[in-house]
Amino acid sequence: QVQLVESGGVLLQAGGSLCLSCAASGGSFNSYYMGWFRQAPGKEREFVGSICELGGRIDYADSVKGRFTTSRDNAKNTAYLQMNRLKPEDTAVYYCAAMISGNLYRSRDYNYWGRGTQVTVSS
Fold it and tell me: Which stretches of 31-112 are DSSP H helices?
């Protein structure tokens, strides 16, 4: 059983930067694909980005490509989401998730989830 805890969410102004962390415990972190999703009020949860077990493959949603970067440190059992040039439409609860195998864009394929961290971007 893997436990995931996100941190780093804050309220900030548009154009700012923020780094979210996702600390994992209770499993073999380097055996999992790590994904980032977000959910805004009244909207469905959407894929943001993902990184494979050893970091060789990274994918992003078009809406964040060029602004967000995901990485991982397997020695620290932690994944990161660096967010730059934030926009009000990036406001959401951000979740990290771990997947053994499946479609990295599909939330239901992820096996473990954190509780989320709120990111609010003011205009």
Answer: none
Amino acid 24 reads A
Question: What residues have CB less than 8 Å from 96, skipping those under 6 apart?
Answer: 4, 6, 20, 22, 34, 35, 36, 37, 79, 81, 113, 114
> Helix, strand, coil % (nearest 5) of the chain?
5, 50, 45
pLDDT digits (tens, 9 = 90+) for 72-112: 999 999 999 999 999 999 999 999 999 999 999 999 999 99
Please identify which residue in the block is written with the tokens 């239901």. 108
Cα distance between residue 87 and residue 14, in whole Å: 5
